[in-house]
Every structure is written in structure tokens, then in C-alpha cells.
Amino acid sequence: MAGGTKHVFDDLDRELIALLRQDGRAPVSKLAEIMGVSRGTVQTRLDRLIANGAILGFTARVGADFDQSRIRAVMMIEVQGRNTSQVIRKLRGLTELQVLHTTSGKWDLIAEILVEDLGQFDRVLRDVRLVDGVLNSETSILLSSI
User: Fold this and answer.
1) Which residues contact 107 (CB under 8 A, 6 or more apart)?
2) Does the pTM exceed 0.85?
3) Among 20, 47, 46, 48, which Cα is nearest to 34's?
4) How far is residue 97's CA from residue 68's CA, in Å, rounded to a whole number?
5) 100-122 pLDDT tens trace
6) Which of 15, 62, 70, 107 is least buried, going by the fewest C-beta atoms within 10 A?
7) pLDDT, tens digit, for every residue of 25-59?
8) Which residue, among 38, 98, 55, 90, has the nearest Cα to 74 in the 3D structure?
9) Rg of the chain's alpha carbons, rounded to an integer?
10) Geometric angle at alpha carbon 79, from 77 and 80, rounded to 5°
11) Which residue, 85, 97, 8, 23, is CA-closest to 54?
């Protein structure tokens, strides 16, 4: 953002983001109809939310059947000392880490992992543990969504 100012979201921004979370492919005209505003208003808001980083992109949500053969896991990571920024930069290079979260408590970071098979899973675990600054980790494979 220019000048380092933080964007303040209003109710219209929040409503637009909520609708896009439900259907990221919804046409602008449909969003405008639901929100009770003009198509131009929605397009302007959408452009601004993308430009200021509130919306990072659009993704497809897939059904459980699609991902059933893939291995999903969460990895809790403990970082040594003050190396968190350096570790985050290196972990972002691992495409199998779908999302990386900072957290409080015993673990400094939590990574969501998505891989095709156990061989790839083993390699990802090894790659994360070899990152300078990673002190410890614990990983749990996600078995069923309930």
C-alpha cells in the first residue's frame, strides 16, 4: 500500500470477500445482484482488494473424492532463536507446503502439507528438517475429514 497506510475494510468489502469464499468463480454481475450494488461498484472493489493484497488469488475447492488418494498432513515446526523470517523464506520454496502459519505456543510455525505419495512425503519431511534454523518438528497425517 502506498505510504504504508493500512486499508480499512467496510461491510461491502467483507460481504464481497464472503461471497467469493463461497464461489470464487461467481460472475461480477451475479455478485452485484446479490449485494444490491452496480456491477461497476463490485468490479472497482474487487480490483482494489486484489491490488492491496486482501485477495491473493482465486482457487478451486475440490470435493473429497478428488484428494482422497493424496496425503495431507500438518507439520508443527520449532525454529531456533530468531531465525523465523529466514526459515519462512526457505520453506516457501517447498511447493508441497500448501499453507504456512505463524503461531503462538510451543511451535513457531505450522505447515499444511499435500503430497502424492509416501515417497514424496518422506522427502518433504527431510527437506524441512534440513532447513537451517529448524530445531524440531512434529507431523500428523490427516486421515479423515469429519
Assistant:
1) 76, 77, 78, 138
2) no
3) 20
4) 18
5) 999 988 999 999 999 999 999 99
6) 62
7) 889 999 999 999 999 999 999 999 888 888 877 77
8) 98
9) 19
10) 150
11) 8
The 3 state secondary structure assigned to 61-129 is CCCHHHHCCCEEEEEEEEECCCCHHHHHHHHCCCCCEEEEEECCCCCCEEEEEEECCHHHHHHHHHHHH
Enter the C-alpha cell of residue 7: 486499508
Contact 9, 45 (CB under 8 A): no
Name the residue with cell 492491496. Answer: 52
C-alpha cell at 14: 467483507
| List of domains in the chain | 2-51 (1.10.10.10), 64-142 (3.30.70.920)
Give one DSSP letter per residue of 20-49, joined into a string. HHH-TT--HHHHHHHHTS-HHHHHHHHHHH
